[in-house]
Write the structure tokens for this entry.
Amino acid sequence: MIETPEPDLREQAQRAGSLSMTGSVATRVLGVVAIAAVGVMALLALWISPADAVQGDAVRLMYVHVPSIWVAYGGFVLTAFASARVLWRTRSGVGGTYGVIADRQARRWDRVAGAAAELGVLFTALTLVTGSLWGKVTWGTYWQWDARLTTTVLLFVTYLGYLALRRLPAESRARARRSAVMALIAVVNLPIVHYSVDWWRTLHQEASLNLEPGGDRNITGEMYWTLLYSWATFTVVALWIGIHRYRVLRLEELAEEASLEELLAQRRDEQAAGR
Amino acid sequence: MWREIWLVCRKDMIIEWRARVTLVQIVPTVLLVLVVFAFALDANPSLLGAGAGGLFWVAVLFGAVLGAKRSFDIEAEGGNLDALRLGGLVPAAILWGKAAALALQLVLVGVFAAAGLLVLYSVTVHDWLLIVVAGLCGMAAFAICGTLYGAMTVGLRSADTLLPLLLIPVAAPVLLAGTRAFDVALGTSADQGWSWTALLAVVLVTYVAVGWAAAGPLLEDA
């Protein structure tokens, strides 16, 4: 492997566009697709999909509630995967000639972990809010001490703790490795949340879609396709937000590392160019 | 490696024997939690009996938070962690030695908490073997998790407030499975007690695997 020199911070900042931009042509296209997909999803969920025989119109909340938790699970799994990569890239003995590259890749994975965890927390919060609203309509109460609800709240708090740990001031390598360990422990809670409805007799219904071969579907017809479409839409939206968040984290790192003098010099250059 | 683990564990146990923090502070706190729960539940014997398994694990979890904090407080002062590493100990040996010492202390806490349940909540044990196996698996899992999080937060200014926030939710699988197993052993549930103990063992093995991978990164940066 040939060592490539680390570009200096100003060059990195210039390559990132500017210290206030996270957009690119690809993300703008993705953004337009995401917004259009949300529009179609609203049409499907609010008009085309029928009301449920038992739940009535409350079933429409499921088109937000179920995809939200799927995307949140995806975010947390990605966080764990990226964290494993961080630990691998920064393991003892990785240094010397390849140290700079390993460190740069570890930083990338650390940003992926951070952005994915934030998305996971955001979509878990959305799941809890929509679930609570659905519970008020269907069960007559906003909250039940049900296994699925309780484990989901614990998952939410676990990753809030993870984000709190990430925000503590520390040397970037130490912070990345510390956060990576926590992410690997936290992901153990994921199967417990998912299988809680099978392990305990709970108020919460079983999984809406059974993806195992020959498994029963608890949902069919327009509802089934609307739910699948909503999942695809939420994935695109999450991807869009995630890419922007990743870039924001990168710019935050650049801003942290760039010395005041370099920022002042950059500002002077910009002013001179504007004249 | 095993000898190094034993050295670190013995060091922590000697410090504990001299200071007696577990016996004089953590055990009374855990017993106090059991008493306070009885107040909160209006000392209703049937309610206390039904919730005894869960209350035991909540009380021990509080004990684990205190124990994990204490375990790394004694190292933070004077740069003892650096001294241990300069002494030639590998990070994994330090971490597992401290986890073993914390596990032993938690077993002590668990014995007192179990005695508290028998005396204060008047529970009857139907399956001692299940209690012992599930208890040991749970204590070991709390100890490993607590040690990892203790190492993660050592030296941080907000460690006192951050450690409970990080440790309590992530220890939820142990709390849930341990409670279910104890409910069966205490005769308040007809569930599959050994299945829950198997889940505890799976969580324990997962924590051990994460611990092996994390020991180096955590202690090198601590």
